């Protein structure tokens, strides 16, 4: 089983779609949201992908900004230094 990190940048909906697809391989998939909130208003498919990913217990979410919105309840806050250290543990890192 491989460990895969998906870093969400500009192409948020595509990154979440790819992360969802990677879970089908029974690999560990962690999602990193860096610096930007998810833009669910402009891209409704983001919300649909998050809802699907939330049904998969092995998926973990990390982010590097504080937000009190309940939407981010499943996200774990890590500062940039901790994220950099954590990324060293992955077999593959995919950035979208």
Describe this structure in words.
The chain is of the alpha/beta class and 96 residues long. Helix content is 31%, strand content 24%. It has a five-stranded parallel β-sheet, with helices on one face. Helix 1 links the parallel strand 1 and strand 2. Helix 1 runs parallel beside helix 2. The longest helix has 11 residues. The protein is globular. It starts with a strand and ends with a strand. The model has no long low-confidence stretch (mean pLDDT 91).
Features:
alpha/beta, five-stranded parallel β-sheet, 96 residues, Hypothetical Protein Ychn, Chain: A, 3 helices
How are the SSEs ordered, and which strands pair?
Elements: E1 3-8, H1 12-22, E2 28-33, H2 44-54, E3 60-63, E4 75-77, H3 80-87, E5 92-95
Parallel strand pairs: 1-2, 1-5, 2-3, 3-4
Helix pairs in contact: 1-2
Mean pLDDT: 91
CATH class: Alpha Beta
Give the end-to-end Cα distance, rounded to a whole number of Å.
Answer: 22 Å
Uncertain residue ranges: none
Side by side, the strands of the main sheet go 4-3-2-1-5
SSE class: alpha/beta
Largest sheet data: 5 strands, parallel
- Which outline best applies? globular
The tally of beta strands, per DSSP, is 5
Quick overview:
Helix content is 31%, strand content 24%.
